[in-house]
Amino acid sequence: MQLSAGPGGEWADDLVRRFLAGRGERTLAAYRSDLDDFARFLGQDTAGGAAAQLLGGREDAGHRLLLDYAVELRRRGLAPATVNRRLSTLRSLARFAGETGLDVRWLELPDEDQISAAVEARSSATVPYLFPRHPGEVDRLDVQHHALREVLGAHHLAPVDRPRRILDVGSGTGQWAFDMCRHHPDAVVIGFDLVAGKPGRPDRCRWVQGNVLQGLPFADGRFDLVFQRLLVVGVPLAYWPTLVAELVRVARPGGWVELVEPVVGVVGAGPATARFNELALAVARQRGLDSTRVVFDSLDDHLRGAGLVEVVRRQVEVPIGAWGGRVGSFMATDLRAAQARMSEVLQTHAGVPAEECRALVDQAQEECRHLRMSFRFATAFGLKPR
User: What does the buried/exposed string (b/e) look like for 114-141 if buried means 16 or more CB atoms within 10 Å of the residue's CB?
Assistant: First the structure.
């Protein structure tokens, strides 16, 4: 038997009633909660209307609805057990429908690989991140992490006292969160990013997938420290006040918010490095990103504007090249890797010939050996009033 879906046919209302009949109190409450949530997701007034839309349509439409719902559950940051339970409720409903004679053999729940691929594709499509995804980015970002740790002398500068919950927004490889678990042994550290970081997370380190441009899926006032670093290449300039307000929202009263961002480009650049910067910043402007130093100059003002007090700002120089010792040598490698990644973007989106990109990268490395170039970072932190 194959039925057509309307705005909520009587067959679907009856199906849901029979599906729920005779359930134990706890199971009934869980099933009702799950079906009501699915109905809200579809914009239906009743669970029957949602069942009609899911079970009474075409095969591809039903699977797409389930995949969209699974992505939404993941976007909200719900616990994996909750996501699995809600999808399992829909599976049970479909199985029950089959037992009553409705042909739903084609309806399969999306598997974990399908859900993860959909989350990543949909999130990435709405993010203007400057650098392309590349396996070598893990090493490059970890080099930046260790260099900043050495130059700043600490993992964070906010004077948080014995934090219990820490949030790392734009967690990247996850290395900062890993280190914070070791540095604060009583804390649970949550990394939030579009894609998972590297494997080997400590027991007290969690990861939540999501797009910061769509808001944070956490309740108000949850975290003792909210940390964000190096998102100037992924967050549009116009969005920064909204973003910082969101970071402050999830910090607890008496908690701290800390931001770390660079001047976009290289300080003291030679001709080749300056030319490469110019080409890369043109792409950044096209994507609505900061192409000057507005974010760098405004970090502390953003924190004050979002209502924080006791705001402190500090600037540091991170050397590029052997003149800066071990850190400088690491950052010269980082610069070359970053320019190699950006070369792909310049060729694809700016029409820069591959030969020109290679020549600029080689000349920039030569400049690293002879000039005292550097990256300039600002860190700012503030306290959320009680």
Answer: bbbebbbeebeeeebebbeeeeebeebb
Tokens 């953003």 belong to residue: 302
Domain 127-383 has CATH 3.55.50.30: no
What is the pLDDT of the chain when averaged over all its residues? 86
Give the best-scoring range by mean pLDDT among 215-224, 283-292, 376-385.
Answer: 376-385
Backbone angles phi, psi at 140, to 5 degrees: -60, -45
Which sequence spans correspond to the domains of the chain?
Answer: 10-124, 127-383
Mean pLDDT of 123-128: 56
Q: Is the dihedral of CA 318, 319, 325, 327 positive or negative?
A: positive
Average pLDDT (206-229) is 91
Fold of the CATH domain 10-124: DNA polymerase; domain 1 (1.10.150)
Q: Which residues contact 333 (CB under 8 A, 6 or more apart)?
A: 143
